[in-house]
Amino acid sequence: MKINTDRFSLTFDEYLTETNVLFYLNDAVTQLLEHKEECTQFGVVRYFAEYFTSVKNGNHVLFREFSYIKVTPHNRESFIHTFWKCFRQIGKNGDLLAMSEYSSLLQLLCPDFPTEMVQNAARIVLVDDAADSLMSFSDFIYSFQIQFYYEEFVESVSVIYQDLLSGKNPNTVIVPTSTSVEQLSSAANEEPDAQEGVDSSVFCECIEGLCERFKHKFPSTVAIKEILESSQQVSFYGFLMALAKHEGVNQDIGALPNKSDLLIDPEMDQELERL
Amino acid sequence: MAEKRRAGVAIMSDEQLLSQAGVSALLRGALLRLLECRPEDPVGFLAEHFAHLSSEAEDGASERQSVSRALWHLSLAHHSHRSAFNNNVRVAYELLTQGVPRRLGVGGVRGRLYSEMLRCLCSEGGLSGSTAAPLLRRIQSHDYESVPFELFRQGVLTCAVFADYIRKSQCLYAAVASAPDRPAERTLCQAVLSTLREALETADGADVARYLEASAKISPAKVAQAMAEVQPRAQRHDGLTMDAQEFEDAAAALFIARVRTVS
């Protein structure tokens, strides 16, 4: 939750917005009104203390609605972390689950978590739409992380990819003529084809251009360059999979440990040993 | 609010409920503190802010807790942010005077608590016990005495400024030492120390914070000038050096000499 800009030069409004403080305060008051019994002079102080402590510790997203958990990067990171803590045992058992099962698990923690997003995450692992294909916990969670934490980025990159596939360079200015308008509408209906690919360096340039003006979170350009410099051609899902597997990107988000530590759960191990 | 009426008894509206519990005053206070201090971690700051408020309201705080809470308040703003710092000093003072029975109109912080407070401030400011000791001897009070607000404020400010001053001196020493693990040449150190003394002497008046303004006058140019004057004489390379601790003690002594002893 640290902010890097010179926070003393921001106006009050800017500081409060950038840190999402007003959002959390508003939510705290709304939650308080849903627990009216806490509304005593002493109760409210303790209530706010507990609320902000739980936000700080990342416990605040449990059982909250989807619109809440997606609204700040901290909330998204906390949710991914919580999902991992709750279900890493599945990984230990080596179980492979289908997309619908992961969706149910997510909905245990967030009742209105959209299945569509889980589908998108599954596509990163499975590429084609086989709804019954099984995925390991490890494969799923890292892909889910990219899809959920960088949702807006993934969407924008998808548009760039489609443009490049249909032969358009998004960086050029298009003067609408009748033929190019047709091209636009047909490109919009295409799903990015995983088997094809685009030129990595052009793709990289376009993504860097996007990042320069992008208002949402995006993976470090260092990581993006690293990935795209490693091959001449790249597919959309190939790119996302590489992001999912990239250790640096994972650490920047900060929600999950390294892949080798993913399944370590010392408390559960102790419990199991007692049995 | 028709749906809120049940069995003929009016249930309060949300706004009434919140205002009765004092929520807007509470949040206003929290936001003001937040905007004053602009911490790097606003959520963590708010968590601690409310937690402290809540436990203050809860128990008759033990002394240890009072001191640590007072210290926390003092850590929130640097002394150069004068109004924020003064507010924090006021809050800390109130915390430490709680539960002290007022004897015939004499209020204030108990001497023992005040001395403890200053000791902790110095150590939290990175000062070693030996560096802080001479300063503390001058400004701390007897255990049985009662410390009024203005004296409390001066003492706290002195410690904060002293900690900054020593840090600056350490940087100056590092600047004149040719290598991090070798002591600096004595003549160079003495040149720097006399520049420090000059700067301190220009600070007139009782306000301790002027000392820091004075030390800001020790611009790199001034130090370089002093060193340039020294350099030809140092060609002798007589190998006399001054180590970091001696330099720090000497710098500390310059500062402490100008602090009035509290009698």
Entry summary:
Chain B: This is Tubulin polyglutamylase complex subunit 1. Chain A is about 65% helix and about 5% strand.
Tell me what you see in this structure.
Chain B: This is Tubulin polyglutamylase complex subunit 1. Chain B: GO terms for molecular function: microtubule binding. Chain B: It holds the Pfam family TPGS1_C. The complex is a heterodimer of chains A (275) and B (263). Helix content of chain A is 63%, strand content 4%. Chain A has 275 residues and is mainly α. The longest helix of chain B has 28 residues. In chain B, a hairpin with a 2-residue loop joins strand 1 and strand 2. Chain B is elongated, with a radius of gyration of 25 Å. Chain B has one domain. Chain B contains twelve helices and six strands. Classes of the chains: A mainly alpha (275), B mainly alpha (263). The interface between A and B is medium-sized, with 31 and 27 residues.
Features:
heterodimer, A: 275 residues, mainly alpha, two-stranded antiparallel sheet, globular, B: 263 residues, two-stranded antiparallel ribbon
- Write down the domain tally of chain B: 1
Query: What gross morphology of chain B would you assign?
Result: elongated
The pLDDT mean of chain A sits at: 85
User: Separation of termini of chain B?
Assistant: 66 Å
The major pleated sheet of chain A works out as: 2 strands, antiparallel
Q: Outline the low-pLDDT stretches of chain A.
A: 180-190
| Greatest interface and its participating residue counts | A-B, 31 and 27 residues
Can you tell me the residue ranges of chain B where pLDDT is under 50 for at least 5 consecutive residues? 1-9
Helical content of chain B, roughly?
Answer: 55-70%
Pfam families (chain B): TPGS1_C (PF24480)
Protein name (chain B): Tubulin polyglutamylase complex subunit 1
GO molecular function (chain B): microtubule binding
InterPro entries (chain B): TPGS1, TPGS1_C
